[in-house]
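Batch job 17 of 40 flagged for manual review because the log was empty.
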Amino acid sequence: MGSESETASTSGLPLASDPDCLLCTAERITPWHYEDEQVWVADCMVCSTPMIVWRTHGLPDAELEKDLLGVLERIASERYPEGFWIDPIRRRIPDHWHAHARPEGGFFGT
């Protein structure tokens, strides 16, 4: 694996990373629900909802984004069995792909 600012991809090549990006550093500040080579899912420290983060700094193509959102939907259905919605707006960190699963009819997690 590379330096702390790199994450190895499944191809063995380092993924794009920004050492100043909070999502790239991926500190375990809140509970984590899932992680693999491409993504991690943890509670957002601002809104307390499950948030999926692509390990690569940047934005995925539409097909990959659909696959990544499928991971978040699986976790959200466990957290919010009464329903949820996916919020794709990147308010605070617009250049690193991530999305939130919010409770049906709500914005903040419980």
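Reviewer: the log was empty due to a logging misconfiguration, but the result itself is present. The longest helix spans residues 62-79. Unflagging and moving on to job 18.
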